[in-house]
Amino acid sequence: MFPRMVVAFDDSPGARRALERAVELAHPEDAEVIVVAVEAHLPHYGATVGEVTEELEVEERDCHRWLAAAEAYAAEHGITVAGEVRAGHPAQELVRAAEEHEADLIVVGHSGHSSVWGRFLGATAEKISRHAPCSVLIVR
Fold first, then answer.
1. What is the arrangement of strands in the sheet containing 32-39, beginning at the earlier edge strand?
2. Nearby residues of 121 by Cβ (< 8 Å), 6 or more positions away
3. pLDDT higher than threshold 60 for residue 44
4. Does the global pTM surpass 0.70?
5. CB 23 within 8 A of CB 74
């Protein structure tokens, strides 16, 4: 049904549920699954070049650790996934990844913010669903 899926993954509980669902969907179809981790956090103050570089290195290590966890989970269930690290705004990067990979489905976890915070901050999942070139599955 969905031969190529992009899964947002940051090793949070919601992201783990999204990965579980993508693996379930991929198994009977042997779909291609691309797991995307996004480096999104930079210092929110006047940081020096060294501090920015250090923060980027920490983010990159985290992303690679997350991808290793996703790959291990998928492998336990007989699915091979491709991992990809991107830098930028999570919603934009996930939509861009779906476009570049010609994905049929983007799978994301629900963030769990309250409705007030969701409206105030603008949920990543909601932004993805508005701009995606394909279907979006938001896993609760």
1. 81-87, 32-39, 4-8, 105-109, 135-139
2. 113
3. no
4. yes
5. yes
